[in-house]
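SAMPLE LOG
Freezer: B-3
Tube label: C17
Construct: single chain, 114 aa
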Amino acid sequence: MNKDKEIEQILLNEDTCDSIIQKKKEKEFLKSLEKTDTKPAIITDIAKVPKDKLFSSKATFSLINKSSKTQSYINGIQAESYLVSLNDREKLLEGITDSFIYGNYYIKFYRLKA
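STRUCTURE (predicted):
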């Protein structure tokens, strides 16, 4: 039924077939752009972070050097390499704590882009 209306519209209009196809492609392209414009959700509460994503490249941790008093940001994979204690790892995964200490570094969960 819908195709019949499209064919009827083509016959009634003086537009060429190419221009109608072009308009249809533009509509489809605009619809696909609307779907991709969604911004990723940002989770800042460690208790809400899925366990499999905590130590991924989408997670961000704040790394503070206590001796030089500087701050930088690392991803979850890098933060996992600083974990020595399995106890600290379990506490982070369960959401009990959001930080741990490694030598001169204080490492704290910052956010996750989901």
